[in-house]
Design goal:
Oligomer: single chain
Helix content: 10-25%
Strand order of the largest sheet: 1-2-3
Strand content: 5-15%
Radius of gyration: 21 Å
Number of domains: 2
Number of helices: 2
Number of strands: 3
Order of helices and strands: HHEEE
């Protein structure tokens, strides 16, 4: 998968549509990719557990030894493997 800058893509489509019938392919090739990192939210993280002090909105994170909400994320986040 490749994340692209959609504004640049639209500009490329307009530019290449005047020059070629292979507009979409040329526009995609000319569009720069975005440097993005996948994020793991706490609700999907293997380190986020319910302990005796947890509430519906906050659970314990073993990576940071404190409570976090489900939409929080951090650098130590690891997606929980639900295949077991």
């Amino acid at each position: 998968m490749r994340l692209i800058d959609a504004d640049v893509f639209v500009a490329n489509v307009i530019q290449y549509s005047k020059q070629s019938t292979k507009t979409i392919g040329l526009a995609l090739d000319a569009t720069p990719t975005i440097d993005a990192v996948p994020v793991v939210r706490c609700k999907d993280c293997k380190w986020w557990y319910k302990d005796m002090y947890s509430t519906d909105k906050m659970k314990w994170c073993y990576a940071h030894a404190r409570h976090f909400p489900p939409v929080y994320f951090c650098a130590e986040g690891e997606r929980e493997d639900n295949d077991s």
